[in-house]
């Protein structure tokens, strides 16, 4: 029964691979992809391409002084009125914001006109691991064909997973 043995072995390898995939690691996302943090980019559309988890890092790249990053409450995010509801302020031009809590985060640029012009988006950081029950996805993830931003998130981990699959296949064929 060498056939079943090989099949079982391959099945186990597959299970290991899938558990590695589902065990989400912290990812680093460059906000806006190649457009960075600037006017003229639809950041809501950008953010909807991804599913964010606790531990992930958002990187805001921009020319210091031309923009900034304010983490806001939801109401203030909607109104773009930053006179209240400011939770955190970043202005270094290379701000790394770690999503430390399982909650909704709201970001705007506070330079006058920029938030109303579209420099605003929200993300939901979901808890992974722990009880192993993922919260339901908040919004459907559209635009699979869009080219920007794909490059930063799907990088080394995906390639590693492909290699594991190839190696597992090779081993199971040899045995
Ligand atoms: Cu701005």
Automatic annotation (TrEMBL):
Superkingdom of the organism of origin: Eukaryota
Biased composition, class Pro residues, residue ranges: 134-143
Residue spans crossing the bilayer: none
Signal sequence, renumbered to the chain: 1-26
Gene3D superfamilies associated with the record: Cupredoxins - blue copper proteins (2.60.40.420)
Gene Ontology MF annotations: electron transfer activity; metal ion binding
Residue stretches making up the Phytocyanin domain: 27-127
Keyword entries, A-Z: Copper, Glycoprotein, Metal-binding, Signal
Region Disordered, annotated ranges: 127-152
GO cellular component, one term: plasma membrane
PANTHER family documented for this protein: BLUE COPPER PROTEIN, OS09G0541100 PROTEIN
Protein name, entry field: Phytocyanin domain-containing protein
């Amino acid at each position: 029964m060498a056939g079943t043995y090989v099949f079982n072995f391959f099945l186990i390898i597959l299970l290991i691979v899938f558990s590695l995939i589902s065990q989400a690691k912290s990812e680093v996302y460059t906000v806006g992809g190649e457009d960075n943090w600037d006017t003229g980019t639809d950041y809501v559309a950008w953010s909807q391409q991804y599913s964010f988890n606790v531990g992930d890092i958002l990187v805001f790249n921009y020319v210091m002084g031309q923009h900034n990053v304010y983490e806001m409450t939801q109401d203030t995010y909607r109104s773009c009125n930053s006179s209240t509801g400011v939770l955190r302020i970043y202005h270094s031009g290379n701000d790394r914001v770690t999503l430390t809590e399982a909650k909704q985060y709201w970001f705007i640029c506070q330079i006058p006109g920029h938030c109303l012009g579209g420099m605003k988006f929200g993300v939901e950081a979901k808890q992974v691991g722990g009880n192993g029950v993922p919260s339901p996805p908040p919004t459907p993830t559209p635009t699979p064909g869009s080219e920007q931003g794909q490059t930063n998130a799907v990088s080394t981990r995906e390639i590693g997973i492909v290699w594991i699959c190839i190696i597992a296949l090779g081993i199971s064929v040899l045995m």
